[in-house]
Every structure is written in structure tokens, then in C-alpha cells.
Design a protein that fits this description.
The protein is of the alpha+beta class and 162 residues long. It has a single domain (2-160), classed as Gcn5-related N-acetyltransferase (GNAT) (Aminopeptidase, 3-Layer(aba) Sandwich). It contains four helices and seven strands, in the order βααβββαβαββ. A seven-stranded mixed beta sheet has the order 1-2-3-4-5-7-6, with helices on both faces.
Length: 162
């Protein structure tokens, strides 16, 4: 897997990948990231506090200008020393190669380096492949936190970082 930190030039490609995935699973509805104003400007959000958040684009190994996915993290306000795994999406052509696991591993490594003790994520039951990956990786399902922003999400997971 080849990845790099998101730049302003990547915003359109990542927003398209995210929206295409959500639409394919009937989640192009309010209460999901599909309608977030910031989705079209992800690089602004993630570059604002580089010591506490980051977003990585995954590029095709044969064509580094071709973005095939992305994943990020930011501090989760709902719990002390907790980072949230955010916006892990792949283009359809990139799916089925184990990249999701690698992307989680990348984020886990980065948040450990920053001293986070827990990795949190929220997802939806429509995203069964993602749910399978999270469970297999070791995430444990938890109760819905009070600080959930995307109110359509209905599954919540946590990974303790030893």
C-alpha cells in the first residue's frame, strides 16, 4: 500500500469516493458524512491540527496520481485519550485486496505514536463488509456514545491500544 497525507488537490477525489460508497449502500441521507460541508475540504480540517489528526490518501502503486481510497483520524471528544478512525473508504476497483486492514493498521500505528489509548469508530449496519473487517481486526462493539455527530450511524466500536 502506498499512501501520503491529503492535500487540497485530493479533496475532490476523496469526496467522490466517500459519496459513491455511501450512495451504493443507501446512506446518501442526512445524518451521514455524505452531507457534511467539510467533506469537500477535508485537507483543511486535517491540516489544522497535524499533531492531533491526519488523513491519508491511498494511491495506486502503478499510478501515484490515482487515488483509490483514504482513511483518517482525529481526537474523539467523547472519551479521554481516544482517537476516532474516520472516513475509511476505497474505490470499487481497490476493494477485496486487504487494503482496509492495512489502512486500519496505519491509523493504529499513528495514533499510538501520538499517545492515544483507544481507537473509536462509528459505522452503519448497511456496511456489512466494513463491520466484518472491524470485528476481525479486534474492535469491540460498544453502546452509542453521547457525542455522536452523524446521527444515522447505528454501530459503534472501540479498540483498546495496549
Amino acid at each position: 500500500m502506498k499512501y501520503r497525507t491529503i492535500t487540497a488537490q485530493d479533496n475532490v477525489a476523496i469526496a467522490k469516493i466517500v459519496r459513491d460508497n455511501l450512495k451504493a449502500y443507501h446512506l446518501d441521507i442526512p445524518g451521514t458524512v455524505y452531507f457534511d460541508e467539510g467533506l469537500d475540504h477535508l485537507s483543511d480540517f486535517y491540516s489544522a491540527e497535524p499533531k492531533r489528526r491526519a488523513y491519508y490518501v491511498v494511491v495506486d502503486e502503478q499510478d501515484e496520481n490515482s487515488i483509490i481510497g483514504g482513511v483518517g483520524f482525529a481526537e474523539f471528544e467523547g472519551k479521554t485519550n481516544c482517537a476516532e478512525l474516520q472516513k475509511l473508504y476505497l474505490s470499487d476497483a481497490a476493494k477485496g485486496r486487504g487494503l482496509g486492514y492495512e489502512m486500519i493498521k496505519l491509523v493504529e500505528q499513528k495514533v499510538r505514536e501520538l499517545g492515544y489509548k483507544t481507537l473509536y469508530l462509528e459505522t452503519h449496519s448497511n456496511l456489512q463488509t466494513a463491520v466484518h473487517i472491524y470485528k476481525k481486526y479486534g474492535f469491540k462493539e460498544i453502546e452509542r456514545p453521547k457525542s455522536v455527530v452523524h446521527n444515522t450511524m447505528n454501530m459503534f466500536y472501540e479498540l483498546t491500544l495496549d
